[in-house]
Specification:
two-stranded antiparallel ribbon, five-stranded mixed beta sheet, alpha+beta, Ubiquitin-like (UB roll), Fumarate Reductase Iron-sulfur Protein, Chain B, domain 2
Length: 254
């Protein structure tokens, strides 16, 4: 079957905004030919290459791994590299693309993620091993490995963070992405600062600030559950001292 036989037309409605010259965002429409395999990122690339070279957006791997192409499509945060245009068209054949909400716009689809990364660093997402490191390897049970799996799958795309209504009004809130990564370390039996981590996330802008609206779950392109991780952190923070003592005993067996 030829390209002409399989192609059709789509209208991509894009929010354009350059804060250096524009007073407010405007919506612009671009009509282009697509095939059943055309992704939203393909459409953006085509518009930039053939219609408006000033269109600005982030992208890199094209395989839903790097997380750089997260945008708001028809009111929902998602990655655009693995989403086909025809899956998001309305009855008029239109798709609306905006930048991630609640974040300052640098230009068009590119947003300033400074607060996102600051909160990520705040939870010290790296492993801090105990002083007595085993000669050969750390030993972990299959159950402990399974508990860590979800947080490791997070690609740091920012979709959950910018979908959170708490971060919309409070940039000091640690955020679902960072709390998910914090749970990765708190639940890791090799980590030696679980008590410090739980103390940090139990503050006024930590796990207890979550309103449990589940927007982060809905937005996550990897189908992760930050809300569940936050709830786990809440429970562990309530019995922090007992948890820390149990961790010390566990590390003696590693």
């Amino acid at each position: 079957m030829s390209m002409n036989e399989t192609s059709k037309t789509a209208t991509i409605r894009i929010q354009r905004f350059n804060p250096d010259v524009d007073k407010k965002p405007v919506m612009k429409e671009y009509t282009l030919a697509i095939t059943p395999d055309t992704t939203l990122l393909d459409a953006l690339e085509q518009i930039k290459a053939t219609e408006d070279g000033s269109l600005t957006f982030r992208r890199s791997c094209r395989h839903a791994i790097c997380g750089s192409c997260a945008m708001n499509v028809n009111g929902r945060n998602t990655l655009v590299c693995n989403q086909r245009v025809n899956a998001h068209q309305d009855k008029k054949g239109m798709v609306t693309i905006r930048p991630l909400p609640y974040l300052p716009i640098i230009k068009d689809m590119v947003v300033d993620r400074t607060s996102f990364w600051e909160q990520y660093q705040r939870v010290k997402p790296w492993l801090v091993p105990p002083q007595d490191v085993p000669e050969k390897e750390f030993r972990m049970t299959p159950e402990e490995v399974e508990a860590l799996h979800n947080a490791e799958t997070c690609i740091m795309c920012g979709a959950c963070y910018s979908a959170c209504t708490v971060t919309a009004v409070n940039k000091n809130y640690i955020g679902p992405h960072a709390l998910l990564k914090a749970s990765l370390r708190v639940l890791d039996p090799r980590d030696s600062i679980a008590g410090e981590r739980l103390l940090e996330i139990s503050g006024a802008d930590g796990a207890y600030r979550c309103h449990t609206i589940f927007n982060c779950i809905d937005a996550c392109p990897k189908k992760l559950n930050p809300t569940q991780a936050i709830e786990t952190l809440r429970k562990l923070a309530q019995k922090r001292e007992a948890f820390v003592e149990a961790r010390k005993e566990r590390q003696k067996t590693l």
